[in-house]
Structure formats: structure tokens, C-alpha cells
Amino acid sequence: MHAPVADDARLSATERWFATHGLPFFVPAARTQARAALRPRRVVPRLVLVGVATLLVGVGLAWAGSDAALAPAVLLTGGGLAVAAYVVVALGARPIVAWAVGRTLGSFRQLLPTVTRALPLLLVFVTFLFINAEVWQMAASLPTGLLWLTVLLFGAMAVVFLLVRLPEEVGRVDDNVDDTLLLTACRGTPLEGDAARLVADEGADPARHTELGRFERWNLLLVLLVVQGVQVLVVAATIFLFFLVFGVLTMRPEVAEAWTGGPVASVPGLPGLTAELLAVSVFLAAFSGLYFTVVAVTDDTFRGQFFSGVLGELERAIGVRAVYREMLERDADRGGSGAGAG
Predict the structure, then answer these.
(1) Can you give the C-alpha Rg of the chain in angstroms?
(2) What does DSSP assign to residue 26?
(3) CB neighbours of 263 closer than 8 A, spacing ≥ 6?
(4) Which of these, 2, 246, 269, 273, lies nearest to 124 by C-alpha position?
(5) H/E element holding 92?
(6) C-alpha 13 chain-centroid distance
(7) Average pLDDT for residues 305-327, to the nearest whole number?
């Protein structure tokens, strides 16, 4: 008599567990909310409003700075930030970002050795570009808007590359789900006891619930995308700071003037730090971020180091989800409402 109530309590606790582990779309109610937020009548008006607002701001900045490229740069940046904000707030992806960022920064001790392994070779390669006159001429000649657009292009290429390659990683996590994985995955979760009971029950087969739906696959993909994005930003920021310090120490004004073909001016209060040095550092940092993204995903050694821990978390999520779906199915068969039904 009291078993359905207890089951519903465990299902509700499991849904909270999903949310705190960056898996909100594993819960039916969250998927329903996301589908509603993706309806054109909700999305289109907001896109139009953001587009008009960012375009007006961009045109204003372009006119004030006499830099026509600022208009599309502001429009693309504003549009990208608006889409990201809509995904986080309206679609309910905030737990995904919070967990992925928290896990990446929380495991910084494990991240640091891998990054320091990748940085020396990357720095050697990019430093040759930094001491190249043609790079200084190109970067220094770019107005702010075009430099901004260049950084956005590198960022967009990195995101597209990840969106092409990361689904392969997601596709591997549900390939080897068995009873051992189910028991290991559910250990320490609200479904630990249910997993043991279902595995021992010959009439139950929770492992059959490993096929992910569209929203659930996107959930795992977003987790990997945010984790990898934070790592790339750490590397790009490190490269940027390195070249700022390296440039202040080694790049004399007369050399910079000879390479850029014009006078250079230091930033007020910061002798040695010039606008040209900032432009070169930004350009090389963005390029390094793209290069590091490609290497981290394609190189077997780096891919194993970067994704091993996260993929283990995703495999655990698949196991917990399989038991959760089996419990939901049994709850539906009993005619109960279920904590996550719908």
C-alpha cells in the first residue's frame, strides 16, 4: 500500500539528482518545458527583438567609431549571447552549465597537468608567429570591428567542430550498459536499492532503456560542449596573458613601429603595453583556442585525458536513467501518477 508512495519519493529524489548533475532533460517535465520554449511563437518574437536592439547598438558604435565592421560584430555577439541566455533560462539548461563549469573548475588539479602538457608545444608553435613581422602588420592593421569578427570566426569554427565531433563521444556512452554498470552507476543515488532489486529480478530488464531521446542526447552534448569550452577558454586566456607579458618585456617600440609600418602608442599608465600588442595577443590567443580545440578532440592521448572523467560521469548518467525509466514504466503500469510521468 505504501510502496507507490515510496517509489514516487525515490523518483522525485532521482529527478533532483539529475538536476544537480547537469542532466535536467533526463526528466520528462523538463523536456516538456523545453519543447514549449522552442515553439516558433515564443522564439521568433524574441529573436526579432534582440536582432533589432543589437543592430541599433552596432550601428551606433560603428558610426561613433567610424568602423563599419562593428555593426555585424555587435549583432553576431548580441545574437549569440541572446541564444545562449535563452537556452540557459527558457529551455532550463542552467543546471547543465552550472554542473559542467563547476566540475571543470573543481577538477582544476586534474586539468592542470593536461593543459601544461599541451601548452609548451602550442607556445613554441605560436611564439614563432608572435615574432613574425607579417603577423604584426596584419593584426595591427585590423580595425577593432574586423579583429572582433576574426575572433568570432575562430570561436564559431571551434564550436562547429565540436558539434560535429562530440556526438561521436556521446554515441559511445550507451554501448556497453550491463547489470554491473547499472549497479555501479546507481551506487550512492536514490535508486541504489531499486537497481539491485531490478538486476536480481529476472522479469526486469532496465538495460533496455539505454536508447537516448533527442533532448537527452543534446543534454549530454551540451555537457561536453561546456566542459570543453571552459578548458579552451583557460588555454586561450593563458596564451593571451603570456604574450602580453612576453611582448612588454621583449617588444621595443622601435621594433613594433618597423613591423607595423607606423607609430605605436602605449596604453596610458602602462608603458610597453600598446594597442598593437593587444591586437596581436588577442589574435594569437583566439587562433590558439581553435588549434587546441582541434588537437584535444582529434589526438587520442589528449582526448582520453580530457574526456575520460566526463565520459565516466555520462556513463553513470545512462545507468541511472535506465533504472529510472524502468521505475517510471512500472509506476505507469500500476496506474500511478509517477513523479516524472508525462
Answers:
(1) 25
(2) G
(3) 257
(4) 246
(5) none
(6) 27
(7) 81
Residue appearing with cell numbers 523538463: 30
Closest CA to 158 of 276, 57, 295, 278: 295
pTM of the model: 0.85
| Cell, residue 134 | 607579417
Nearest alpha carbon to residue 289 among 142, 156, 107, 187? 156
Report pLDDT digits (tens) over 280-312. 999 999 999 998 888 878 877 666 666 666 778
What is d(CA 59, CA 67) in angstroms, rounded to the nearest whole number?
Answer: 9
End-to-end CA distance of the chain: give it in Å, rounded.
23
Range 106-116 average pLDDT: 64
Contacts 24+ apart (CB under 8 A), 187-190: 189/14, 189/17, 189/320, 190/10, 190/13, 190/14, 190/17
Helix (H, G, I), strand (E, B) or coil at 212: coil
Q: At what angle do helices 214-250 and 275-298 cross, to 10 degrees?
A: 140
**CA quadruple 198, 200, 203, 207: dihedral sign:** positive
Q: Which three cell numbers stand for residue 16?
A: 533532483
**CA dihedral (52, 55, 60, 61) positive or negative:** positive
| Listed residue (205, 155, 158, 153) closest to 179, CA to CA | 205
Helix spans in the chain (H): 3-20, 28-37, 40-65, 70-89, 94-106, 108-130, 133-141, 144-172, 179-186, 192-200, 214-250, 253-260, 275-298, 300-333
Q: What is the total residue count of the chain?
A: 342
